[in-house]
Write a structure and sequence with these properties.
single chain; about 90 residues; mainly alpha; Non-ribosomal Peptide Synthetase Peptidyl Carrier Protein, Chain A; 4 helices; about 0% strand
Length: about 90
């Protein structure tokens, strides 16, 4: 993993742990809307807004439907970050 990718992963993790009020040591695979009780539709909106702000990107409604896990968020925003910093 490249340093930039690691930084993005850690930044997403930081956003998720703060917005969902979960421990920072929670494994990535356990950070999902199915496994975190505090991850509701309101939390999703907060997560999206914070990601758009911190990464200076815009997300479509289609992309937001995939915002249900740490892994899927990275999958959605990865290409946007690559094209904006490419």
């Amino acid at each position: 993993m490249q340093d930039k990718d690691f930084d993005n992963t850690e930044q997403i993790r930081s956003i998720l742990t703060a917005r969902l009020n979960i421990d920072k040591s929670t494994p990535y695979e356990k950070i999902s809307s199915e496994k975190v009780l505090s991850w509701d539709s309101f939390a999703t909106v907060e997560i999206v807004l914070e990601i758009e702000k911190q990464f200076n990107i815009s997300l479509s409604l289609n992309e937001l439907t995939a915002f249900d896990s740490h892994e899927n968020i990275l999958r959605v925003i990865g290409p946007k970050l690559a094209s904006s910093h490419g």
